[in-house]
Amino acid sequence: MTMRYPHDHENDIAYFAKVNFRNKMQTFGIKTDDRRRHVYIIGKTGVGKTTLMENMILSDIYAGHGCCYIDPHGDTAERLLDYIPSWRINDVVYFNPADFDYPIAFNILEAVDQNMKHLVVAGMMSVFKKIWEGVWSARMEYILNNTILALMDNPNTTLLGINRMLSDADYRKEIVSNVKDPIVKQFWIIEFEGYQSKFASEAVAPIQNKVGQFLSAGVIRNIVAQAKSSINIRAIMDDQKIFIVNLAKGRIGEDSSRLLGGLLITKLQMSAMERVDIPEIERQDFYMYVDEFQNFAVESFASILSEARKYRLNLIMAHQYIEQLTEEVRDAVFGNIGTIIAFRVGGPDASFMEEEFMPRFTPNDMINLPKYNIYLKLMIDGITSQPFSALTLPPIATKTGSEEKVIEQSRERYAGNRAKIEEKVSEWSGFGADTDIEAEYEKTKQVKKDAKKARFSHEYTCTRCGKVFPLPVELDRSRPIYCEECHPIVMEERKKGGSKGQQQRVQREETKKVLETVPRINDGELVLDEPKGSIKLDELVEKKEPEKVVEVERTEKVVGTKGIDGIKEAKEDNTDIQARDMLRAPAAAMTLLDRPMLEKNDEQTPTPTPIRSDSSVRDQGQQDPNKRKRRRRSRSKKPADGSVNNSSSGQRPPRNDNRPSARPESRTEKTGGLPAPIKEAQLVRAVSTDSSPTPVLPGERVTFDE
After folding, report:
1. Using CA atoms, how far apart are residues 254 and 543, in angstroms rounded to an integer?
2. Cys-Cys with 302: which of 291, 332, 535, 598 at CB 3.0–4.6 Å?
3. 46 forms bridges with which residues in the sheet?
C-alpha cells in the first residue's frame, strides 16, 4: 500500500536553482500552487535542460508526490531508477517496451466511460494525424474514427481489432452487432457495406498500412494486444505513484516511440479528467515531465495546458527550439504557461523570446548564456515576476543503487509472460500453431471468387446477337449494349463504315435529297450553276413517257443578251418586234417566259417587266462596249414623272417607251437582256417530290439541268 504524507502541498517548494542576492547565493524554487500553471523549458542541446528536470522530479519523488517522466531517449529514465529511495521502490511503475520478455499490458480501449469515448477517440486521432501527417486524409480519419468507436462498444477489444475489422467480414458483423451508437452502426451497416469493392479497398488501404506497420513489431504488439491492462493510470495518479516511461527510439523505433508516447499522454489526460467525480480539494497533484515534448505535442496538448490545472495535472516540458512546435501548440504554450525558463538558444529563438525578456535581457544576452545559466520569468503566488537570471543546481550525486530492485518489483507487479501473450494473440487472430495453412489459403481464394461473382448483379441482352450476360455496373438500357464477343466486331464494322446503323443513315440521306437552301431566281435571270443536292429531272419524271416539244411564242421588246457559248444576240430595233424562242422541255416543265402575261390590274401574280437593251449586236455573240455603257447609264435614270416601280403590289407602272424600264434586283449574275436559248433546258420545282413536276412561278427557287 502506498504511504501517504500528510503535509500542506500548497506551500511545498521544489528547489531547482540559485541566484546571487545581495552578494550571496540564495537557492530558490517554485511553489506547488504556482506549478499548476505549468513550466516551460527551452534551450539548445547540452546546456543543462535534462539535469534541471532530473533535479525537479527527484525533489517530487522525495517529497512523496505522484509524478511521471516520459523519456524518448531512455538515458534519464534508466538513471532515475538509481535514485529512488528505498521507501518508494514499491511506488515505481517502470514502463519499458524494450524489455521484450516482460511486456506490460496497455490497452487504451479498455473500460472507457461512455461520456469519455469521444475524447479518447479525438486524442487518438490527434496522435495518428501527427505521426502519419504525410498520408493523413479526411476519409482515413472518418473510417478510423468509426472503427475505434465500434471497438469501444465491445469488451476485450484492442488495437489489433482495427485491421481485422476492416478485412474480416465475419468479425466486423460480430463487432457491429454489439454497437450501441446508432450513427456508428448506420455507418457500418449501410455506408461501409455500400462501398464498391474497389473504393473500399482504396479507402482502408492507408489505415491497414500504417496500423499494420505499427502492430507488426512484436515489441509493440505484445503490449497493446492484451485486452486487460496491467497498469491503471487513474490509480497511479490518485495513489501518487511514480510512473517512469522509457521510450528509447534506438530500441523500439521512432514511430513506435512517438505513437506509444502519444497514447500514454492521451490516457493521462483522460484519467485526469475522470477525477471530476471527486472534489477538487481532494485531488492529488500529479506532475508530468515530458522531455523533447515536440515528439508528443499533439493538438490535445493545447487542451491539457488550458484545462489540466483544475484536475491537478501539472506539466513540466522541455525542448530545443521553437520551430519544433506547430503554430497551434506554440500559441497554447505561451498563452497558458506560468513559468518560462530559457537556457542558451539560437538566433531565431532569441528574437522570438525577446518579447518575454525585454527590456532586462536582449537577444544577444540569450545567445551567449553560459552552460547551466538561465533567464526566467517565475510565477510567484499567481503573478509572473520580472525576468531575472539564475544558475541551476548541480546534479544530485548520491545514488541509492535501487535500479535492479525497481525493475524486479515492476516486472512482478505489472509485466506478463511473453510466450503466453503471443499464444493468446495467435488464437485470437485465428492463426495458432494448429492452423491448417493450406485450408486457409483455399478458404481465402473461395471468398475472393464469391465476392467477384456477387459483384456481377446486372444482366443485359446483347443488341447484336441476343446473348444474356452479367455486368458489375448499371448501364443505360436505351442504348446499344454488346457482349464480349460482339463488341470487337462492332468496333471493326464502325471503322470500315459497314455497320447496320451506318447503312441505315446512308439510306436516309439518299431519300432526303432536297435542297436545304435554294437560291432565289428572279424573272429574266440566267442560272449557270446547279446547286449541290438538287434533284435531277430524270429522277422525278418517268422515262417511258415520251417527251413533247412545246413552242413558246411571245411578243416583246427584244434586247440583246450576253454571248453565252455561241448564242447569237438579237439585232437592236427601235420598234416593237416579235421574238420567238424555241425551248425544248418535257411536257410537265415550263420556263418563266412560257407563262402568258397577266393583266395590269391582276394582283395575284406580279407581271414580269419586259427587258430592253441596245439595238446593235454582233454575230460573234459579243456586245459593243460603248453601247453597253449607254445601256447602263440609261438604267440609272429615274422616270420623268417621278413614278416608282412598285413590284411588291404586283402592278407595273406606266411605261415610257422612250427610255428603258428599271430592272428588278437579283441575287444571281444579271445578263443585261433576255436569256439566250438554252438547249433542252429543264426547269422544275426543286422542292417538289411528286412524280409530275409543277410549273414554276416567278420568283420561285429553280435549278437548270443542261
Report:
1. 98
2. 332
3. none
Please state, in angstroms and as integers, the Cα–Cα distance from residue 113 to each residue in 119, 141, 263, 267, 274, following that order. 10, 22, 17, 12, 9
Q: What is the CA radius of gyration of the chain?
A: 52
- Give the Cα separation of 384 and 294 in Å (integer): 25
297, burial (CB in 10 Å: exposed 0-12, middle 13-18, buried 19+): buried
User: Is residue 551 included in any domain, yes or no?
Assistant: no
Shared domain for 128 and 99, answered yes or no, is no
In a domain, 545, yes or no: no
pLDDT at 4: 45
Same domain, 94 and 169: no
For 28, 70, 97, 422, the CA distances from 101, given in Å and listed in that order, are 44, 21, 10, 11
Say yes or no: 205 and 254 in one domain: no
Q: Exposure pattern of 249-268 as b/e (b: 16+ CB <10 Å)?
A: bebbbebbbbbbbbbbbbbb
**Which amino acid does the sequence have at 46?**
G
Q: What is the mean pLDDT for each group of 10 consecutive residues in the chain (706 residues)?
A: 48 86 84 92 93 94 94 92 93 93 91 83 87 85 92 90 89 91 92 83 87 84 90 92 93 89 90 88 92 83 81 93 88 89 93 89 92 93 91 87 92 90 82 66 71 69 89 83 90 73 66 54 56 52 52 45 44 44 43 44 47 44 50 49 45 50 45 45 43 52 49
Q: Are residues 203 and 320 in the same domain?
A: no
Q: Answer positive or negative: Cα dihedral of 503, 504, 508, 509.
A: negative
Whether residue 546 lies inside any domain: the answer is no
Taking alpha carbons only, the member of 230, 208, 103, 118 closest to residue 159 is: 208
Give Cα 97 to chain centroid, integer Å: 40
Q: Which residues span the domain enclosing 262?
A: 21-106+231-392
Q: Kindly state whether residues 238 and 334 are assigned to the same domain.
A: yes
The pLDDT of residue 149: 92
> What letters, b where the CB count within 10 A reaches 16 and e where it falls short, cover 20-59?
eeeeeeeeebbbbbbbbbbbbbbbbeebbbbbbbbbbbbb
Cell 528536470, located at residue: 53
Query: CA-based angle 334:336:53, to the nearest 5?
Result: 80
Last residue of a domain, one of 194, 225, 256: 225
Q: Provide the number of structural domains found in the chain.
A: 3
Q: What is the DSSP letter of 696?
A: P
The pLDDT value given to residue 558: 43
Q: Could you please report the per-residue DSSP string of 136-175?
A: --HHHHHHHHHHHHHHHTSTT--TTHHHHHHH-HHHHHHH
Domain boundary among 493, 516, 532: 493
Would residue 8 count as lying in a domain? no
Q: How many CA atoms lie within 13 A of 401 on its CB side?
A: 0
Nearest-angstrom CA–CA distance, 260 and 247: 8
